[in-house]
Design a protein that fits this description.
about 450 residues; alpha+beta; 3 domains; 6-stranded antiparallel β-sheet; disordered C terminus
Length: about 450
């Protein structure tokens, strides 16, 4: 960033000592205090420093107080080896500088009683690339001028009339002409009232113009008149001289001090970034990006795992484990056995343990042994099949009962044939003899049938 600084002071229409003081450090890195008119300065990393101090006390050496203030500020900044890291630390440093100036003025009065009652205001600007840090105590002002934007002060006067302005009782123009406009509420050097320094931080942009001044300027010219000069005069030297001239033309009742600070465009040297720094920053960026991706991937896997786990049925820890069937007692799901030319399904036979109620557990299917399909098998027949089987058995028994018992040597075919009475009588006797030997009497139904046949 390229800057330009110009500063000047004038006694005004007053006769006597100029009680105003100012200081400019164009390059704080090299502790280079001073400036050259119209010099284009490359703003260093430590920045530049400007201040205006308006002494008061008249015969009580107001010029001494303002001179002590600007010297202490230079000493404090010269002792600064590196720029504080944060904005808060920078602002704290500015307050420390102003407090040191106050204490030095108080100490001077103790050692030099003839200067008792002296004091000074102060406004301090510390510009670091892209930012401006402001601190003030008293009614010395700092303005910012941007093209197309009305001029406005960045500081609030520590004065009686400005308190009335903030309360809405009077306007800024009325405050400038107020008979008590010279009464200030804050200053450096009063041993009974330590300064309450105010601070402000603003961003700097190309084309910005900063104006630091003592009240000898703004008490003679209002803000619109000051803005007109800053707009019409682009050169810092000509603009400063014209401001002082118009203040003197308006009365020049006080000393007039002006510092103009212009912000020009940035240089290629300043915006260039070393290749090593760029590579390192790129590596750091990639590493940080990879870390973020890794963390997000891990979280995504956890979420997906949780969702998938929600769809898997979980078994209760109290649920018994399915028992495997023993080798000597196989579980038979279904089998078919043939018996006496009657095809009959062989039912399922479970092991001693009951099957699990959980449908997820399925017992293996084991085929029945081929050698003896009905050994150790307990038939289980459906009601319909049982009814058919029982009916078949009843019919078979009835058929057997209705058929007369004949000797083993007698052909069954001959017993069913119709016999003559003589043959029937002979068979009856033979049957009775056989029944008596076997203790198996002939059923009554058979007798009835025999009687009917006779």
């Amino acid at each position: 960033m390229i800057i330009e600084i110009f500063a000047t002071t004038d006694n005004g229409q007053r006769y006597g000592q100029n009680e105003d003081n100012f200081a400019v450090c164009k390059d704080l890195a090299n502790k280079n205090w001073g400036f050259k008119p119209q010099e284009k300065i490359t703003l260093s990393e430590q920045g530049a420093v400007m201040l205006v101090a308006d002494g008061m006390g008249g015969a009580n050496a107001g010029e001494v107080a303002s001179d002590i203030a600007q010297k202490v500020v230079q000493e404090q900044f010269n002792q600064l080896t590196e720029v504080p890291g944060t904005d808060k630390e920078k602002v704290s440093f500015l307050k420390k500088v102003i407090q040191a100036a106050h204490e030095a003025i108080v100490a001077h009065q103790v050692d030099n009683l003839e200067t008792a009652g002296m004091g000074t205001t102060i406004v301090l600007l510390w510009t670091i690339p892209d930012k401006a840090y402001i601190a003030w105590c008293g009614d010395s002002r700092l303005y910012i001028h941007k093209k197309g934007i009305p001029l406005k002060p960045l500081t609030d006067d520590h004065s009686y009339v400005w308190e009335l302005v903030k309360q809405g009782k009077i306007t800024p123009k009325e405050a400038r002409l107020h008979p008590e406009s010279n009464i200030i509420t804050q200053s450096l050097g009063d041993p009974t009232t330590p300064p309450k320094t105010e601070t402000k931080i603003i961003d700097m942009q190309e084309g910005d113009r900063f104006l630091l001044c003592s009240d000898g300027l703004n008490s003679m010219l209002d803000d619109e008149e000051i803005e007109a000069v800053l707009t019409q005069e682009e050169d810092t030297v000509e603009a400063s001289k014209r401001l002082i001239a118009e203040a003197n033309a308006a009365g020049g009742h006080d000393n007039i001090t002006v510092i103009l600070f212009d912000v020009h465009e940035a240089t290629a040297k300043q915006v260039a970034i070393p290749a090593r720094t760029t590579t390192q920053e790129l590596r750091n960026f990639i590493r940080s990006k990879n870390r973020v991706i890794a963390v997000l991937s891990f979280l995504l896997v956890c979420v997906l795992g949780y969702v998938v786990a929600g769809y898997i049925p979980k078994k209760s820890s109290n649920e018994p484990i399915a028992k495997q069937p023993l080798s000597n007692a196989p579980v038979i799901v279904a089998a078919e056995a043939k018996q006496d030319s009657l095809t009959m399904p062989v039912a399922e036979t479970a092991t001693a343990a009951k099957p699990e109620e959980n449908n997820d557990v399925v017992a293996p299917t084991v085929k029945p042994p081929v050698t003896s399909p009905q050994k150790n098998i307990k038939d289980k027949i459906s009601p319909n099949k049982l009814e058919i089987e029982n009916k078949s058995r009843i019919d078979s028994v009835a058929e057997k009962k209705s058929t007369p018992i004949t000797p083993p040597k007698v052909d069954q075919k001959d017993s069913t044939e119709k016999s003559s009475p003589e043959k029937l009588e002979k068979d009856k006797k033979l049957t009775a003899d056989t029944s008596g030997k076997n203790n198996n009497p002939v059923p009554s139904e058979a007798k009835k049938d025999t009687t009917k046949s006779q």
